Amino acid sequence: MSQFCFVHAADLHLGTRFHGLAIRDEATARHFAQATRTALSRLVDRTIEAEAAFLLLAGDIYDGEWQDLSTGLDFAAQMARLARAGIPVFMLRGNHDARSVVRREITLPDNVRELSTDAPETVALEHLRVAIHGQGFADRACPDNLASRYPVPKEGWFNIGLLHTSLDGRQGHGSYAPCTPADLVARGYDYWALGHSHEFEMVRHSDPMIVYPGNLQGRSIREQGPKGAVLVMVEDGHIAGPPERLIVDSGQFLQIGVDIEGLNEMQELWDGLSDQFATVVEPGVETLHAARIVIGGEGSIHDALIAIGHEKRMAEAQAAADRRRDDIRIEKVVLRTAPVRTEEADARAANILAAGDFDLKTLLSEAATDPAVQEKITETMAQIGRHMTGGSEQFEGEIDAILAEGRATLLARAEEQ
């Protein structure tokens, strides 16, 4: 009985710069700055441990043009580790590292084979009777159905399609090398090793198996949970069971929501948050976590939450985490709360805003020069810039939250005058 295994990974995004990470702890910031490289090293570890026959990399190895040569040098060094273990690597380019985007090159070890960006090509592994078919991106924009051009399967062999594609659409992703699962099925291959979507997804479980492994390392709060690659077993020319996920990330993002409705004391909020930290991370997971806390709902502690300010909220949230775990760092605390709505409260707010017995312009001027306000505005504008060409899920609701907090702060200051 012939048996072998291979590892399928994609979307390494080496060189990612974590601009959006709001964590101020320098050690944690350094940890995430190296996270994609650490994930690659762990991927190589797992590939060698599994004694894989080969490694497939389905595009977006790099996040874009290198900021310096160390990005390419680090990748080459990791590929050299695989070369010493006798493991070949087959890779192609995606939209982030298309031929026209990443122009710098470093000589890679002989075990690495990059598939053509001009036309589909086939790599034949005679000793395994495996044929790997694929084509990389020449340009960032790829509106064509590349899969439709892939060659017919090699009869009697185990055929793999290596492709960077958005398929028929994935949330938060543009259209790249679009095709349908039916298009892939029609090629007659045994396994499709896809890249582009950053979420692990079994698009099709068999005949053929079609898999997105997701990216190796989450890069923002939009990419939560464990990240890694997949290990596929093949026996007598057929896939033996579902793929095994290989979790290799060195840091994970998570978001926790808490509601202030029904709470009478601030400490109740932090105690409840601490309880959530005890259960939000799966047992046995040993990695650093960047947590975003979203506080919502209507409640009597709304004004008190506003009054303590951003720094105090961050400190209390971190203390709540520390009571339960030592591997969680608070990335941000987002306020989406409101006071309990009553006719009396609404009338009071209306009277304050209409009274004219305070200098509204002065208050606004002070707010504009307040360091905390400036930090929030700068952070928001950075998010706008990041999402002009990408998904906007992370940004949804932020403007409303800023306005709600600003209005509450303004009312509080007005009452003091």
Automatic annotation (TrEMBL):
The keyword Hydrolase is annotated on this UniProt entry: yes
Residue spans crossing the bilayer: none
Presence of keyword DNA-binding: no
Every Calcineurin-like phosphoesterase domain range: 6-199
Key words of the record: Hydrolase
InterPro entries: Calcineurin-like_PHP (IPR004843), DNA_Repair-Maintenance_Comp (IPR050535), Metallo-depent_PP-like (IPR029052), Mre11_N (IPR041796), Pesterase_YhaO (IPR014576)
Molecular function per GO: hydrolase activity
Matching Pfam families: Metallophos (PF00149)
Name of the protein this chain belongs to: Calcineurin-like phosphoesterase domain-containing protein
Annotated source species: Notoacmeibacter marinus
